Amino acid sequence: MELYEFSAVELSRMLRARECSSAELTRSVLERIEKVEKRVRAYLTVDREGALAAAERADERFAAGETLPPLSGIPIGVKDNICTRGMRTTCASKMLDNFVPPYNATVIERLQSAGAVVTGKLNLDEFAMGSSCENSHFQKTANPHDLTRVPGGSSGGSAAALAAGEAILTLGSDTGGSIRQPAAYCGIVGLKPTYGAVSRYGLVAFASSLDQIGPMARTVEDAALLFSAIRGADSRDATCAAREYAPLSLSSDVRGMRIGVPEEYYGDGVEAAVKAAVHAQLQELEKAGAKLIPIRLPSTPYALSAYYIISSAEASSNLARYDGVRYGFRSERVENLEDVYLNTRSEGFGDECKRRIMLGTFVLSSGYYDAYYKRAKLLQQRIAAEFTEAFKSCDAIVTPTAPDTAFPFGAHSDDPLKMYASDICTVTVNIAGLPAVSIPCGKDAHGLPIGMQIIGGKFTEEKILSLAKACEEMAGGFNRLPALD
Ligand code: GLN
User: Fold this and answer.
1) Are the beta carbons of 248 and 461 closer than 8 angstroms?
2) Does the CB atom of residue 156 touch ligand 1 within 6 A?
3) Predicted TM-score (pTM) of this structure
4) Residue 154 annotated as catalytic
5) Is the CB of 318 under 6 A from ligand 1?
6) Which pLDDT score, from 0 to 100, does residue 387 have?
7) How confident is the model at residue 191 (pLDDT cuts 50, 70, 90)?
8) Which atom of ligand 1 is nearest to the CA of 307?
9) How confident is the model at residue 67 (pLDDT cuts 50, 70, 90)?
């Protein structure tokens, strides 16, 4: 077994036992990147020198006998919408092609102070808008389970890198499913934390009231480890909750656990293989002593519309800053100020960003605000209230993560509504500000991974990760890389 194949928890132990060094581990990951990256195309930037230097620093501290945080010396890839000082941060957009942030996101500061090794920046849909990674200005990332298919999105690079062994852990961001849906498509674990559990400082904003950074990993314990390192209050993000957290301790004992099963998430739009896999897992959980409770979340069918209205409204405002004046791309075809704005934005943004800007501007305009934006915000309250009600009778809710498995490149490219439908099971969680984790749950007839989603009440990450761990044990472990060679 190569070093890049181990879990972070295991590597952390090996580094402490001096069974390997961080430099060896980092080199193993970098060599793997060199070997498979031409086919997977997960990275937009690989920071070879920076990673090796960080690994050597970690090794020196291990050699000096220091007690170091668990992530010390572990190679971690970062979605390219999270600011890294001195390292290009593009959001996979022509608009930020040349942008090198002068500061680090809070999560990056935390990784660095934990001694982690940042390997580079990972591909995404432009400004995190999309469900397949095909909206990247630079390249289309492939799914390591089938290179003719998409890895999901928007954190497709972060998910594919893990499945291909090109990182031990990665960071993604999730506004409507962007951590969970690619995790499902690539057969890995992805946690979207409670809104406010992780600082958004330095995350390039898409829809600020929904965005959260979260961990992606090949095992549940690994996701918990990365989550523990990045969560917590931050004076630079007023929406980050001022809470103290006890260390996470996961238990795989599900006896007496009440699991809500909402029928709205198992409807006609969900592929039969996906439904069957999730039902099989639910039955296993029942056998292990959990109680299955049928519940209703009646506003679910309206969630997708509410999500695309709210997120596009916020996106249209957040993207207004890219005007060619202060930083980023500026059109060369300019004769006056209007040209600077118009041509910069016309040339700098891809089609999907433009679509969201137009939709967002429309739903916020005075004639339509009441009909669209206001109603979407009312629906948001109702969806959140239905979850609160449901959590009175259950500890966690289980659904499919996505209605399907990874689709071939181009399958939904000319039909944005079809693409948006990939998010049907995930957007409600962001709308209600809840935590949810996607875990692998079997495969379909093509051998493609299926994802199962576990949703919890606010700040119950420990509970949903525990349930996830129980499923992982039942499956005999998740950390299996597809054969790419
Ligand atoms: N696919 C969804 C969208 O396009 C979610 C994106 C995300 O979570 N960043 O908006």
Assistant:
1) yes
2) no
3) 0.98
4) yes
5) no
6) 98
7) very high
8) 10
9) very high
